[in-house]
Automatic annotation (TrEMBL):
It comes from the Bacteria. Pfam families: DUF6596, Sigma70_r2. This is Sigma-70 region 2. One of its GO terms (biological process) is DNA-templated transcription initiation. GO terms for molecular function: DNA-binding transcription factor activity. Residues 109-195 form the DUF6596 domain. InterPro entries: DUF6596, RNA_pol_sigma70_r2, RNA_pol_sigma_r2. Residues 13-76 form the RNA polymerase sigma-70 region domain. It comes from Brevibacterium siliguriense.
Length: 327
């Protein structure tokens, strides 16, 4: 296993402005250029330790431009799908979704995708997703659209605590809850309670209920993990996916202990996003510090952003440091 090279990371940071500038000069918009360069940085940090290029800047420009083109092609396809979805939804607002779903207009799925795209740092994109969801809620009487808006508000309420002053990602358990936006939390919970009162449970309402339980806890120790597990059970009944099961394993590990959480991981695909991070957390809690550190490093190698990658590498270093000081 190759550890990250701090010098390489420092050099990459110095190259970023120039590479973004080159992409913009070629016609890329600034926001997409930033995304493309970030993807290229992750690839560089994975490949350079074993195969360093002679022209690092040239390599980064080439890979970032390729990433940019991939994003543009993907975005074009996604926008066409979203336009069809929105048109169909607004043309027939009284109809339910296709058979086999929970009867939700498909536009809210699109809006949630937009919200998640911005959740990693693009506050403007998040705000736009919330605005559009409010508009959709005004046009469509749906408990699930209400649930989606509640979910967005509850998650967005934590935005100021999600990153430190130095840009470091801060895990939910370590966030300063004073920084959480209580106004958004109150609004989200009120909307959720009204939606749940209609007895038309859907996946977004279940997810919002989980977010509300986190938001309602004054400290991480106050979190009602037993009830969170129950809501994950409801969510599984609505949408049984590997990601939901992975998240449920975290909740089970908190409610019933790390061994129970590890048991829930059995049978899940290890290629799932965050799988190794979840296993590392649970292994650390069982006292398997060496194994936990190894898993944090593996999780970092597969991280979807530089902030997440740095966070997981810090977790690995912390566990190793703690292990080295044990008697």
């Amino acid at each position: 296993m190759i550890d990250p090279d701090p010098l390489a990371e420092a050099e990459l940071r110095e190259l970023v402005p120039a590479v973004i500038g080159i992409l913009v000069s070629r016609g890329a918009d600034f926001a997409t250029a930033e995304d493309a360069v970030q993807d290229a940085l992750i690839e560089a940090l994975r490949s350079w330790p074993s195969d360093p290029p002679r022209d690092r800047r040239g390599w980064l420009v080439t890979v970032a431009w390729r990433k940019f083109l991939d994003i543009v092609r993907s975005e074009g396809s996604r926008m066409k799908r979203e336009e069809r979805v929105m048109a169909a939804t607004l043309a027939e607002p009284e109809t339910s979704a296709e058979p086999g779903t929970d009867g939700v207009p498909k536009a809210d799925d699109t809006l949630y995708l937009v919200f998640n795209e911005g959740h990693s740092g693009d506050v403007d994109l998040v705000a736009e997703a919330i605005r559009l969801t409010r508009s959709l809620r005004a046009m469509i009487d749906s408990a699930e659209v209400d649930g989606l808006l509640a979910l967005m508000l509850l998650n967005h309420a934590r935005r100021d605590a999600r990153f430190g002053p130095d840009g470091r990602l801060i895990a939910l358990a370590d966030q300063d809850r004073i920084l959480w936006n209580r106004r958004l939390i109150v609004e989200g919970i009120e909307i959720l309670q009204a939606a749940l009162g209609r007895d038309e449970l859907g996946q977004y309402q279940a997810q919002a209920a989980i977010a509300a339980l986190h938001a309602d806890a004054q400290t991480v120790e106050d979190t009602d993990w037993v009830q969170i597990v129950q809501w994950y059970d409801e969510l599984l009944a609505l949408r049984d996916t590997p990601i939901v099961r992975l998240n449920r394993a975290v909740a089970v590990g908190e409610a019933d202990g790390p061994a129970a959480g590890l048991a829930e991981l059995q049978g899940l695909d290890k290629s799932l996003p965050r799988y190794f991070a979840v296993e590392a957390h649970l292994r650390e809690r069982t006292g398997e510090s060496q194994r936990a550190a190894e898993l944090y490093v593996r999780a970092a190698e597969r991280a979807g952003s530089l902030a997440e990658r740095a966070h997981l590498n810090r977790q690995a270093a912390r566990v190793r440091s703690w292990q080295g000081h044990r008697p």
